[in-house]
Amino acid sequence: MQLSQERKDEVLKAIAELIIAGLKDGSIVEDDLFPIANFVLEKIDTLATEEQMVVFLSELAQKWPVFSKIYSHEKGKVLEHTENLAAQNVMDLAKEGKIDEAVDLAKSVTAPEVPVVAEVPQIQQ
Question: How many C-beta atoms surround the C-beta of residue 100 within 10 A?
Answer without folding.
Answer: 9
